[in-house]
Amino acid sequence: MTDSKRNQPYGAGYVYQRGSIWWVEYWTDGQRVRESSKSTKRGDATRLLRRRRDEIAADEWVGPKEKTVRMADLKRMLQEDYDEKQRRSWDRVERAWAHLDGFFGNSRAVTITTDRLHKYRHARKDEDAAPATILNELAALRRAFAVAVERRALRRAPRFPTIKVKNARDVFHTTDEYERVKAELPAVLRNLWTVVFWTGWRREELFGLRWRDVDWEAGTIRVGVNLAKNDEGREVPFGVVPALVTALEAQRDYTRAVERRLGHIVEFVFHRNGRQVRSIDAGRRAACRRAGVIAPDGRAKILHDMRRTAARNLTRAGVARHIAMKILGLKTEEMWRRYAIMETDDLRDGMTKVVQRHAARRTRFKAAGEG
Q: Which CATH number covers residue 45?
């Protein structure tokens, strides 16, 4: 085996014997690969080498190491990547992976083809999974493949199916609807409802809010980076909003009463008898139905609709866009456009202002002509 043989053109290689077993050696992507023919016959090794060279030429070659990578390995590498980059959404990946495991099991990564991915999409659709849910599940798997390719555990990832998701909503709560729902909510949730109406914060930000984040002297609430989705903390003043002051003071009084009864500190602002609020969906849906606050799809309006409500209220109040985005915790103009919902009255007001402007101009021109 001379050096000249080791530097033959792309895809070239040779056979050699190790003990009684014949081996092949070839090059691909600038890397040397050695593989056993598992045979004592030179002809078997020659045919294996020829087959590997054909696979390389057709871009169908799969390395021996790649064949050992399985779904569990993909998940492990993805989790390590999340840990290294300190991403906080691993719980979403876990939920997605539960469905992926149910379909793919611990399949070898090289067997997960585009065709199998399409079958997965159709299988989840038959289970009535929402398009956005399927998209998130496949996105987790696509990211896992990307990490495996980055780490050279795999040479390539399969092509993932394209899923178009039309989940942008234009639903919001009017002030009257907000008041009606609040009246129907359990007392323990009414203060939270007030805060979300005025701030439009995400559920993670609301449910994770701690009393240490409330500065009574400055009249501000701090949303830390551990809660903010865009990895940017922010501080929002509540002292200038009487409704927020009233809601937070009432929540503080409730918390102190619970602490005296339980005999320990309650750190979360929103809780049920000392236990952190993690969902208000059941109570909110029931309150919406009793209040007659129903979305166009016939279902009760969702908590996230309050985010659009806050964006709309800020816009109608003439708050500068960059300030409104800061209050809501929005990072991009694209996200702002999704939340800044206008209703017919807003558009009517806009057109009325245009008419008034033109009328004023005509009046000035007419006065100038008469002069």
A: 3.30.160
What number is the average pLDDT over the span 199-220?
89
- Same domain flag for 205 and 286: yes
Residue 159 falls inside a structural domain: no
Integer CA distances (angstroms), 328 to 167, 194, 230, 305, 307, in order: 20, 15, 11, 13, 8
326 in the same domain as 262: yes
CATH number at residue 283: 1.10.443.10
**Is residue 324 located within the same domain as residue 195?**
yes
Residues, the chain: 371
Average pLDDT over residues 80-89: 85
State phi, psi for 31 to the nearest 5 degrees: -115, 145
> Closest Cα partner for 120 from 99, 148, 90, 95?
99
Query: Do 185 and 197 contact (CB within 8 A), yes or no?
Result: no
**Residues above pLDDT 90, as percent of the chain:** 34
pLDDT band at 230 (very low <50, low <70, confident <90, very high): very low
Contact 42, 11 (CB under 8 A): no
**Residue 238 included in any domain:** yes
Lowest average pLDDT, out of 11-20, 119-128, 235-244, goes to 11-20
Q: Does residue 361 fall inside a structural domain?
A: yes
Only one residue has tokens 């930000």, namely: 205
Instruction: State the residue range of the domain holding 137.
Output: 71-150
pLDDT tens digits along 113-142 = 999 999 999 999 888 887 878 888 999 999
Q: Quick check: 1 pLDDT over 50?
A: no
314 and 365 housed in the same domain: no
pTM as predicted: 0.54
Residue 166 belongs to some domain of the structure: no
